[in-house]
Each structure stands twice: as structure tokens, then as C-alpha cells.
Amino acid sequence: MTDSIATFMTDDHQRCDQLLAACEQAVSGGDWKRLAEQATVFSKALIGHFDMEEQVLFPELVAISPWASGPTGMMTMEHGQMRALVEELNEAVDEQDADACLGILETLHLVIQQHNSKEEGILYPMAEESLGDQTTKILNRLQAG
Amino acid sequence: MMGTGGLSLDQAPPIDIPARFFLTAPLFAIAAGLLLAWQGPTLLVSRWMPGALAATHLIAIGYLGLIMCGALLQMLPVVAGAAVPAVRLVGTATHLLLTVGAAGLAWGLAGSGPTLIRVGAGAAALGFLVFVIPVGIALVRARGAPGTLLALRTAALALAVTVALGLLLVAVLQGWIRVAEHTRWVDTHAAWGLMGWVGLLVVGVAVQVLPMFYVTPTYPAPMRRWFAPAVLVGVGAASAAWIMGADLVGQAVFGTIALGFIGFAFITLRLISLRERPRLDPTLLHWWAAMLSLCGAALAWTFAAPPTLIGVLLLVGVGVGLPAGMLFKILPFLTWFHLQHRQLGSGRFDLRIPHMGSLLSTRWARVQFGLHLLALALLAGSLWVPVLARPAGIALALSSLVLLLLLIGVARTYRRFAALLRPAPSRAGPQT
Ligand code: HEM
After folding, report:
1. What residue stretches are annotated with the Hemerythrin-like domain (chain A) (predicted)?
2. B426 falls in which pLDDT band (50, 70, 90)?
3. Reduced to 3 states, what is the DSSP secondary structure of residue B217?
4. Residue-range definition of the domain harbouring residue B81
5. How many domains are there within chain B?
6. Residues of chain B with pLDDT > 90: what percent?
7. Ligand 1 atom nearest to CA at B53
């Protein structure tokens, strides 16, 4: 296991990217049962990631550096946008609407990418710097998540 | 302390700024196609035909220039975390001047005389100038993805040189100054424009966007770090040698740069094949066609094929195709993004914002790509079979018309939803 918060969180981003790609693969294959499973796995992973940040990482960061509440608030708001898209995706999967699934996955993918680049470029390095001495404790909590 | 500027959501310019660049640009590609359809095979007889020079600048300034400037205004704050100063004013002025300039210069070069050339060239140059200065300021201030930034900085520099050389050529055409071996100066202007400005922007965008859009591996570090400055230095050295008559040196360096671009194209195709997202969407199809055109152009140059073939492959294969492919993603995403923000402001959470697939039809985007390929094939073919020239022009105009209609569709959906998502009247302040 890694001993860096940034690496841990970035790896989780990559896992979500792969799971989203797997959903697209399932849509293209036309296998609705598999898509339903993949979509569930993907939603769980993505929402789980948001929860880790909103319940563990962001509060810890703000507790140490109160001025971080602006950026983390922004990130939480973007999580809200993505949660809404995930909901839309699950509805489209239930309705077996392939075009809608692809369009929503495409939108979600781009939102996730620009969101992640901000977290990986700014927020995670900030967290590493501020939370350096609590890394082990926080990583344990994130992994328990 | 680390800057948090990059996290701000309201750094992006208002959507109408990039949108007006994107919605005007296809008109110029349509005009280029119609010009070819009208003039027929004579346009492509040689690179010096008035029609060819006009079509070149319709595409280079009217289409490519507009799209690239619009996209840069949009993307700089996001990529580089640096806002462009006075973005509304800069955007408005650049858009107007480039539109007038491209039309005037092309019209003048097509044979309508020196006054139009002068006015058009002046307007276009001024348009690029009011663009390059504030963007230069933003780029100097910028911090962010180093590979991308480097390519964008070098591309901006190359644009400045291209425009300066273009003005010099105009002065020669007007008889204000004389240069020995005029052709070599034109070659140099074309090299800075095509290899420097267009080529390096493609590199900058690819390095930033392909890994992000398709989840591919990143470009090799030496390519990200050294390619753009090497091309810039190379084009500088090669053009100096070329103008001074050191033919061998000039050709050797240009050849090396061409090889470098072939390498870039192959790496790009390889990365695309390693992507994690399986879909072969129309944007990817355009990347694929553009990279093959790039290789084709470099090969054509190596084997001393007619210059018109190189021009067609670079200007239409890369220059017309790739931006179209990028717009398929950029405009729908921007639209979604801005509507989303309006929704937050209006509190109308009962409305569902259309996702990208319902903003721009992937099926029609495929049709657009098909027409583009057809135009490219007919254009290349027409260099040997002249009767293909008119159909090629029509295909080019049609593919750009489909692009325009798709973009208009996105803009109309934006309008419709934006009207529904008016900001909620503030509870505290007075109502307006
Ligand atoms: C304000 C901007 C510009 C002006 C005033 C301008 C002007 C000119 C002029 C006067 C010529 C030569 C005509 C002749 O002597 O026969 C020319 C050729 C050319 N320009 Fe531009 N230009 C401008 C921007 C650009 C840009 C941005 C591009 C790039 C991508 C470009 C690409 C070319 C090419 C490829 C040719 C050569 C066509 C051939 O092979 O004959 N120009 N330009």
C-alpha cells in the first residue's frame, strides 16, 4: 500500500476511469445485463470516492487549513453535478437506452477529467503539505472507508 | 502556499465568446469549398493560382484562425490557470477583425485587387495582434501542465512570425518593398504558418487532450518537453538558411522537422490504439485521419510531390478535419457546463440539462466525417484527375455545412434552456 494521500487518491481516480470505460464497452456490446452490473460497480466506486473526500479528507484538511474550505466547497459542488449524472446513467440503463447511456457516460467522463485534474494538480498536493504528519492515520481511515 | 486560482469556476469566459468563433468558422470552409466548386481545376493548377491563395487564407485565417483563437481563449484559464485580461473585449475585437480580415484578404488575393488585400491583411494582422498580446501575457503568467504550455507558447510565437512575414509579403505585392527571391519568403511564411502555428497547436492540444479524453498513456516525456522548442528552433534555422540560399542546409533541417512530425503522428496513433475507452467516436476518427494526412504530407514533401498535394493534406486533412472533430466535443461540453451553472443559479433542479449525446448527434457527426474523407480523397485525386475538382469543392462545402448545422443545433438548445434557467430573483436585493 502507498504511503501518500495523493497517490492513493489518484490511483482511485484511475480505477474509476477504468470502470467507466468498462461501462462503455458493455453498452457497445449490447449486453444489458452486464451493463447493469458494470454500472453498479462504477457508481459505487465513484460515489465511494466522493464520500471518502467529503467525509474524511476535506474535513481533515479544513480543520488544519481553514482557508481550504473554498476549494473543497467547490469540489463538493462538482461532486453534486456528477452524482446527478450517475443517477441519470442508472435511469438510462434501466430504460435500456443505449444512446443516452453513451451520451451521459461521455459527459460524465469529461466532467470527471477536468475535476480530477484540479484535485490532482492542486488539492491533493495541498492536502499532502498540510496533513503530512497525519498521513498514516488518514490513509487508514480512507482505506476503511 | 499553493495557488488555488485553477479551482475557480468563474474563470472561464462567457460562453458566447468562444461560441461566436466556432459558429463563424465553418462559413469560411464552406466558402473555400464553393470557391473550388466555382473555379474548378484551374484553382489547383499551381500553388500560385489566385484561387489557391484565396482558399488557403479562407482556411488558414477564417476557419483555423478563428477556431484556434476561440479555443485558446476558452482553454487557457482552464489549462494554465491564467485568465486572459479583458477577455470579452479581446474576444469581440479578435473575432470581428479576423472575420473581416480573412474575407478581405481572400477576396483580394482571388484577384479583386491590392486595396482589398491591404485592408484584409491589415485587419487580419490587427486581429491576431490584439489576440496575441493578452494571450501572451496570460501565457507568461501561466503555471500548469508544462508540456502543453510550452507548445502553446511556441505556437503563439510562431503565429506572430507568420503574420509578420505575411505582412512583408503584402508589402512586396503592393510594390512597397522588394526582396530577392520572393518565392523563398513565401515558403518561409508557409512553413511558419503550417509547421509552427498549426503544427505546434496540434501538438499542444494532443498532449493535453488525448490522454484526458480517451484515457491513453501520456506522451513520452522527451516529446512533451523537447518537441515544440525543437520545431521552433528548427523552423527558424531552416528558414534563415532557405532565405540565404543555403539550400542543402535548409532542406536538411526542414526534412528533420518533417520526420519529427511523422514520429509525432505515429506516437499519436499508437497512443490512440492503447486507449482505455473503447469507443471510436467521430472525434477520434478525425484524429486518425489527420495523423495519416500529416504523415502523407511529410512523405509527399520528401518525394518532391506537387506542393498543392502537401497543401491539401495539411490544410484540409489536418487543418479542416481536426478542428471539426474537436468542436464535436468542445461545444457540447461547454454548453453542458454553462447550463449546469445556470441551473445552480436558478435553482430549477426539476429541469434536466441535456447531456452531450443529446446536444450533438453522433450519427450526424459520423456523416460529417464521411463527407470530409470524401472531400479529402476527391481533392487529392483531382491533382491527377482534374474533373474531380468541382465535386471535391462541393464535398468540402457540404461537410462544413453539416458541421455548421450541428453547431447551430447545439447553440439553439443552449438558448432554449438558458431561457428556462434564468437566475432566481435574489431574495435580499432589489428586484431588477
Ligand atoms: C495576417 C495574416 C496573413 C497575411 C497578411 C498573409 C499573406 C500572405 C501572402 C501575401 C501570401 C503570398 C502571396 C504571393 O506572394 O503570391 C501568403 C501565402 C501563404 N500563406 Fe499567408 N498570410 C497570413 C496568414 C497566414 C496564416 C496564419 C497561414 C497559416 C497557416 C498562412 C499560410 C500561407 C500559405 C501556406 C501560403 C503559401 C501558399 C503558396 O504555397 O503559394 N498565411 N500569405
Report:
1. 6-127
2. low
3. coil
4. 9-420
5. 1
6. 63
7. 38
CB distance B103 to ligand 1 below 6 Å: no
> What's the gap in Å between B221 CA and the centre of ligand 1?
33
Q: Output the pTM of the full model.
A: 0.91
Which of A107, A120, A124 to mutate to test binding with chain B, by most B CBs within 10 Å of its CB?
A107
Region A25-46 average pLDDT? 91
Terminal alpha carbon distance of chain B: 40
**Averaged pLDDT of chain B:** 89
DSSP assignment, residue B418? H
Considering only CA atoms, which of B282, B294, B278, B310 is closest in space to residue B202?
Answer: B294
What's residue B5's pLDDT? 41
Residue whose C-alpha cell reads 450526424 in the numeric block: B364
Q: What's the CA-to-centroid distance between B206 and ligand 1, angstroms?
A: 25
Instruction: Tell whether A114 is within 8 A of chain B (Cβ).
Output: yes
Whether residue B296 lies inside any domain: the answer is: yes
Tell me if B429 is assigned to some domain. Answer: no
Q: Is the CB of B124 under 6 A from ligand 1?
A: yes
Residue B280 lies in a domain: yes
**Ligand 1 centroid – CA B61 distance (Å):** 9
Partners of B276 on chain A (C-beta within 8 Å) are 17-18, 21
**Residue B1 pLDDT > 80, yes or no?**
no
C-beta atoms of A107 and B277 within 8 A? no
Indicate yes or no: CB of B355 within 8 angstroms of CB of A81. no
Closest CA to B22 of B395, B289, B414: B414
Residue B343 cell numbers, joined: 441551473
Q: Chain A partners of B341 at a C-beta cutoff of 8 Å?
A: none
Question: What is the rounded distance in angstroms from the CA atom of residue B98 to the CA atom of residue B28?
Answer: 11
The SS3 assignment for B77 reads helix
Q: Which residue in B6, B212, B356 is closest to A121 by CB distance?
A: B6
Residue B425 lies in a domain: no
- CATH 2.60.40.420 fits domain A5-144: no
Q: How far is the CA of B264 from the centre of ligand 1 (A)?
A: 25
> Can you spell out the DSSP letters for B151-208?
HHHHHHHHHHHHHHHHHHHHHHHTTSS--SSHHHHHHHHHHIIIIIIIIHHHHHHHHH
Q: Do A102 and B8 touch (CB under 8 A)?
A: no
Question: B140 — contact with chain A (CB < 8 Å)?
Answer: no
Rounded to whole angstroms, the Cα distance separating B161 from B195 reads 12
Where exactly are the structural domains of chain A? 5-144
Q: Measured between alpha carbons, how far is A42 from B197 in angstroms, rounded to an integer?
A: 41
d(CA A121, CA B349): 31
The whole-angstrom separation of Cα B185 and Cα B314 is 19
pLDDT at B3 (0 to 100): 38
Around Cβ B88, how many Cβ atoms within 10 Å? 13
Picking from A21, A102, A114, the nearest residue to B215 by CB comes out as A21
Cα distances from B29 to residues B36, B46, B205, in angstroms, run 11, 20, 21
What is chain A's percent helix, strand, coil content, to nearest 5? Answer: 90, 0, 10
